[in-house]
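Hi, here's the filled form for the chain we discussed.

Project: internal
Contact: R.S.
Residues: 138
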Amino acid sequence: MLQTSETPRVADHKPERCLLVVEDEPLIRMLAVDLLGDIGFKAEEAGSASEAMIKLRTQAFDAIILDVGLPDRLGTDLAAEIRGIWPNVPMLIASGRSASELSAQFAADALVRIVAKPYTVADLRSALEAVRVLPFAS
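And the returned structure, exactly as it came back:
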């Protein structure tokens, strides 16, 4: 078969990494999905803790971005439940409040980083590098 610029080569295909964005604010959730797309990730969305748990039980994710203030449950409680079931999934905990209390709460977990809202693509990239979802930029 002739190779054209429109024919993808198998060697060029990299499996898409997928993150779960758990955020109740639709505009913030859309922004997170767009920012993740900018750095090469596919993102699934959940607007509540219960929706997140359904998705987590049916699909594997490379990492989770989790809002602290969810409508049906505290994000910190959801993070603890996720950690109990999936001990190796990296999580970024997002909050518009002071990160110091959250940082202290998750200090012992090397797979958790706190991300302050509003976050940027650089913030997400740095946090994903820190939990080893992305390789460190050189």
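Let me know if anything looks off before we file it.
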